[in-house]
Amino acid sequence: MGTAPSHTVLPEQAGTTPFDASERLAWAGRAEAYAGSFAKLCAHTAPPLLDAAGVRAGTRLLDVGTGPGTVARAACERGAEVTAVDPEPGMAALAARTAPEARVHLASLPRLPFPDGEFDAVVANFVLNHVGRPAAALAELRRVTRPGGHVAVTIWAAPASSGQALLGRAVRAAGVVRPAHLPALAPEDDFPRTEEGFTALLADAGLSRPACATLRWDHRATPLEWWSGPASGVATIGRIVAGGPPEVTARIKREFDVLCAEFTGPDGVLVLPHTALLAHGRA
User: Quick one: residue 123, left, alpha or beta (phi over 0 = left, psi -120 to 50 = alpha)?
Assistant: First the structure.
């Protein structure tokens, strides 16, 4: 426990898609940039996610796509026996420092290196947004959960709330379109990002008693902090913002600065409404 994971590069797995490969590139080497920007937003859902998974002292928990280890640390603080995985070596190393009591491994969906029914509960915080076959990913989460155990997952809702849409609006206002080399999720693998659509996806993956709730909150960040993620190339939005010529990035930044006025409070901090979906079921 508490030791840094190996930095061996994971081989591509059978069943991965062009979308999966693109997502791996989008996150490669960006652990610190993510931790200083979007990770603070995603931390908001950690407590309700663990509640939905029934995590308490002694729970054998797997945190899939742990990122900087925020959920893993919160679970350790509850007394859970935590295993955390992430495919990005920098993220796994950061998670090992954030949650030193957890066992941290390099691993990724669609195939996890654990036997059937290994864990009492499995969670994935905003991970299904980044996999090419969400239903298959959920089925894998169910596989490694013991019969009757909990699986709990979050995704961003669609349509996006106004705070979540800010960066995309700046891109469009600058006249920039999504590059053709960035693959989108295949239509047959997509699903409605609604309570009904997410619940149905869990049922299709074989989870029993599926349910879903909407989470809404205002995320507070300085304009510099909110811009720092995409400016550093974090996630797909970052590949769009920072992946082109400097003059294109500068044009997007000018539009971003204009749009920030809609969300800036008296203290100069952005107040960004966000909406996520939290779904859970039994293996």
Answer: beta
